[in-house]
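This section describes the prediction task in plain terms. A model, or a person checking by hand, is given the sequence of a single protein chain and must write out its three-dimensional structure as a string of tokens. No templates, partner chains or ligands are provided. The sample shown here is typical of the held-out split.
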Amino acid sequence: MEALTTAILIIAYCVIPAGVLRLCRKVKWIGKIGPILMLYFLGAIIANVGILPSGPETLKVQNLLSNAMIPLAIPLMLFSFTFRKSETRDQLIAMITGLAAVVIAVAAGYPIFAPHIPGAPQVAGMYTACLTGGTVNMAAVSKMLGVDGQQYALLNTYDMMVSFTYLVFIMAIGIKLARRWLPVKTLDNYDEKAVREAGEDKNPYKGLFSKKGIFHNALPLLGVTIVVVGLSAGIAVGLSKLLPGTFMMFFILAITTINIAVSFWKPVHKYEYGYDMGMYFIYIFSLVVASMADVRALDFTGALWIVGFLFFMEVISLSLQLLSAKFFKVDADTAVIASVTYINSPPFVPMIAASMRNSRVLMPGLSIGIIGYAVGNYLGVLICSLLG
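The expected answer:
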């Protein structure tokens, strides 16, 4: 009976995100909310209405999936991108100043908010990773720092709330204000098809589950991923013997480092769907973690201060990004897309490019974001260490 329960739970966790993705494509208002936020809502409902079977089997499955998804997602999401110097001066400056803006914002806000936030160094480290990379980095750093899964779910919920507010501001007036203050490059190269195909209207999983997708793309990518994860685990085991209790930190950092090296290996770039496979693992992770968040067991201590800290970081980060753009004469759309890809992560780049009616910023935004994915884990751990 326990084996059957375990099997049903694993299948449900793996299949439900596919249903949510289909709803996001078919129902316009659900698509605007986005799959990750929808999965968090769904997971929270599952956690608090008594649907899940009680007992150690459920917790075992949740821990297994939540611990496995992030190490699998990181390599797959990075395989699809080439790490190279930005093609233009503006993109390179926006990338560097964007990272600096997040770090400065965290450092400036920490003395104000930290005294009121339990576990403030860990919170600062996780949000640094999130605001330079994305959910995958926040999750990875939470594992490295030993943050409780339920607290992670709560902190990530705060981030989604504040980041959603930021996104609405950008689309409503932020783009217009930036274009009035900063140089504007010609917008006559808008390609609606390119923007649409780069966004959520595209269904990459249809091709992935074809014969070609499975045997010529998915399986080879999973093979390389398993090798990367295996090597990283071996390195982490060795280093954790010297420094007990540090396995997860070294494990994630090793995965990131080895994967950056592998990304320079040209044959890996011929495979498709790596980013989409990695995102699907993040969708599973989001559902699993949210389903662990029993509201009655969560610690809301310092909630208002945490939300205030997030608002402070995002406002200061955006302000510094725009001030830097003014000083270095970076164009408005590149500056804004850099801020969005750091604060909201690359999946939101197509949406903002569509709002700008400027497909020129698609690839710069995605490229800047993937650099954020690569360095987010390092910055998160570094900030936590320095502030702790």
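For orientation: The CA atoms of residues 25 and 31 lie 6 Å apart.
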